[in-house]
Structures are given as C-alpha cells and as structure tokens.
Specification:
By secondary structure, the protein is α/β, with parallel strands linked by helices. The chain has 2 domains: 318 residues, Alpha-Beta Barrel (TIM Barrel), CATH 3.20.20; 59 residues, no CATH class. 49% of the residues lie in helices and 9% in strands. The protein has 18 helices and 10 strands. Helix 14 links the parallel strand 9 and strand 10. Helix 6 packs across helix 7, helix 7 runs parallel beside helix 11 and helix 17 packs antiparallel against helix 18.
C-alpha cells in the first residue's frame, strides 16, 4: 500500500512518523494532508533517508537543488561533490538532471550517497535510448518513454518529473501565439518536437494510467512537469501555460484517486506583479496540490545573479501558496554549475523560503530571527555565527576586516549605535 492508501485507512506508517518528527508536527497532521492530497512525503519504498521531508500547505517551504551532468561534463565525482554541497547547505531534496555519460550509473551513485529525497527526469533517458540505438530524438517511441519511467522508478528515486501535460491542444496554442523564448523545458521541448514530427498525442498523457501503475510499485511521487513553463517575462501566463496547468490538475486528481502522491510544477519567468495570481490559480486548478516552482525569476537581465532573481520571486511565490522552491544558481543561463554555485543557490533560496515561513506564520520560524537579534544587540559574534544561515561565510566575512574593539565591527567602532543605547 502507498502512503496515501495508508493515510486514508487512518494508519500512521513509519515513514509518516519519522517525517513528522523531523518536521516538528504531529503524525496525524501529516496523515491528514497526505489523505487529502495537500501534502506529499517524497520517499520511495526501499530508499533509506536520514533527512526525509514533507511538502505542502501548513509546512515550512522546502528547497530542491538540481545537479547532473551534461554532454560536455559527465564526471560522476563532480556530481557527488555537488550533492554534498547541496545537502551541507541545507537542501531538502536533490534532482539528478544528467544528460551526459552513463545516466543510470550516475543516478545510482547519487542515490546511494543521497540522504534527502531524490528526483529525476525519465524523458532524458528515453532520448538516450533512441540515440544509443541509432535513432534521433524524433524517432523515440512511446515504449521508450514508458520504459524510461519504469527504469527510474525501479532504480529507487523518490520522485520523477514527467511532462504529461504537454498535449497536442497545448502545442496548437504555441503555434498560434508565438513565444519569445518558445519551450525552455528540455523534457517539454523533446516531447513537443516529437509530437509535431510524428503527429501523435503525448504518450505520457495518453497512457497516464500506466505511469500511475508504475509509480504505485514503489510509492514514487509524481512531479507533474511544467513542460510549457515560460522562459521569458513576455511569455508568462500565455494560453499554452494555462492550458497545461489545467491538464495537470485533472491528471493530479486521477493519480491521487489511485493512491499516488502528486506535486505540480510551475513557472518559470514571471513578472513580480503576476506571481501571486499565478500561485492562487494553481491552487484552484489543482485542488491545493503541493506547488513546486522554479524561481520564479522576476527579471531576465541578470545572468550571473539569477540566484538572487530567483530568491526575490521565490519569497513572493511562497507567501502566496508555493510549497517547494527549486533553486537557481549563479550559473543559470550561462554554464553547468559547479559545487560552489550549488552552495550559493541553495543558500539564496533558503533565505527566500525562510522569509516566506515568517510571513506565513510557520511555528518557530520567527524565533530564529529573534535569537539573532538578541545576539546582535549584545555583539555576541560567536552566537551570531552559530545562528547564521551560512556560518562559514559569516565568520570569514568578519575576519576580512576585524575591528580593533571586540564589542564592535570595523564599520562603526565606537560609533556603534547599539553601544550608545546606554545614553538613553
């Protein structure tokens, strides 16, 4: 039985109990959320997780970090270094997006070393199945796609991104209303091109019941991918994106009815003033299923600083209903990230998530900040380092220009406003 099956039977499975302890909520709270589809615990049977998490309404906002090889860089050791950087920086989940090297070997190596929820994208594997047999991406078969889904689930990943909402109807909207950046999702683009070249419906949509059956085998969570997410501010909220969203809502209901956990993926590049509306629309269209967003990125002009752009949009999204933030690194739109980029991306997105947790009134979130404020008032540097979201960076920053006075910093010295409070 899956976690949803057990939750609906009022049973508290060990995975629910352990996750509730880590989340600092009652097991009954998680059980109820699983039963009604507003929460997920992406934790497949057979995967030993030391740091499981729950995602959904009423919980703290969670962070995902994407890692993975490319055709230009297929070294497993580099990905394991990124995995460690992501986990050490506080990511709650990691996705292997590898497209170069031995994909299965890389995925298994990451899984064996991963203490948090692990996700993957089977569509990349399907593409390589075609290439390895001397075919092109457009010569993939429906069998290739379903085989890739089976392979990833069998390898024990905790959640898979499948682009089931890229339908012929949605692609028609793309043709009629041309985008600035077209389809920027790799999986979505592969599918859309395949569908147009073969004049066939998306097999993952047509055979969605088979996808559900496969996920039930290990209780793998379905992350319904936003294959038509906007990749430019000008493309946000267009007919194709919204058409896909409503399709995902319908598919989510089908999967949940069959006892499979579901996450809905969302944008993307979205102007700041449109984020709240898009978050609320997703919740309405998908019956409050957990929402997983990439950013959103609120401007297109900041290559090299897109982790900051992501954090700005991420807080707004999470305050308005997003539950799971996919980080963006400083390397976004430029190159494959390294371990340092991964760390920066996770920290920036964690800051965004924590700001949202405070605004959302998550129990205990504000306490952290109040403790930091008290440490600052007393100029207790060691306590400040201990409480910092990135202690290593904070300590190194102070060491760059230490003050001659221990009870001040090198910016203010005796002019420190906090020291002057005694005058009042």
């Amino acid at each position: 039985m899956t976690l949803i099956d057990l939750a609906r039977n009022n049973e508290l499975a060990p995975r629910i109990v352990k996750t509730a302890e880590i989340e600092n909520v009652s097991p009954e709270f998680l059980r109820a959320g699983l039963a009604n589809g507003t929460m997920v615990i992406p934790w497949a049977q057979g995967h030993e997780l030391s740091r499981p998490c729950a995602v959904g309404d009423g919980l703290s906002v969670k962070i995902n970090a994407n890692i993975g090889t490319s055709p230009d860089a297929g070294d497993i050791s580099g990905e394991l270094e990124k995995l460690k950087a992501a986990v050490d920086a506080g990511a709650h989940a990691v996705m292997d997006l590898s497209t170069g090297g031995n994909l299965r070997e890389i995925r298994k190596s990451i899984r064996d070393a991963c203490p948090v929820s692990l996700g993957s994208v089977p569509m990349y594997e399907a593409g390589y199945m075609a290439i390895d047999s001397g075919r092109t991406f457009r010569q993939m078969t429906a069998g290739d796609m379903l085989k890739a889904v089976r392979l990833h689930v069998a390898d024990g990943v905790d959640f898979i991104t499948v682009h089931c909402g890229v339908t012929l109807r949605a692609v028609e909207y793309l043709k009629k209303n041309r985008r600035v950046c077209g389809v920027v999702s790799r999986g979505g683009a592969l599918l859309a091109r395949w569908m147009v070249a073969n004049n066939q419906e998306n097999p993952l949509f047509e055979r969605f019941d088979e996808v559900i059956d496969i996920c039930r085998e290990t209780d793998c969570t379905l992350s319904l991918g936003d294959g038509l997410r906007p990749g430019a501010l000008a493309d946000a909220g267009d007919r194709a994106q919204i058409e896909e969203l409503y399709t995902l809502g319908e598919l989510a209901a089908r999967a949940q009815k069959r006892g499979v956990q579901v996450i809905i993926e969302g944008p993307g590049h979205v102007p700041f003033d449109q984020i709240a509306m898009q978050m609320k629309l997703e919740k309405r269209a998908c019956n409050n299923a957990p929402f997983y967003v990439l950013g959103p990125l609120v401007t297109d002009i900041a290559p090299g600083y897109d982790h900051l752009v992501c954090a700005i949009g991420g807080t707004m999204a999470a305050v308005n209903g997003a539950n799971f933030l996919c980080y963006v690194t400083p390397a976004e739109h430029l190159r494959l990230p390294d371990a340092s980029d991964v760390r920066e991306g996770v920290i920036a997105t964690r800051i965004a998530a924590h700001a949202a947790d405070i605004a959302n009134g998550i129990p205990g979130a504000r306490d952290w900040d109040d403790k930091m404020s008290a440490a600052r008032k007393s100029r207790d540097w060691e306590k400040m380092f201990e409480l910092a979201i990135d202690p290593e960076f904070a300590r190194a920053s102070r060491a760059k220009a230490p003050s001659a006075k221990e009870d001040a910093c090198s910016m203010c010295g005796d002019f420190c406003a906090l020291k002057g409070e005694d005058y009042f």
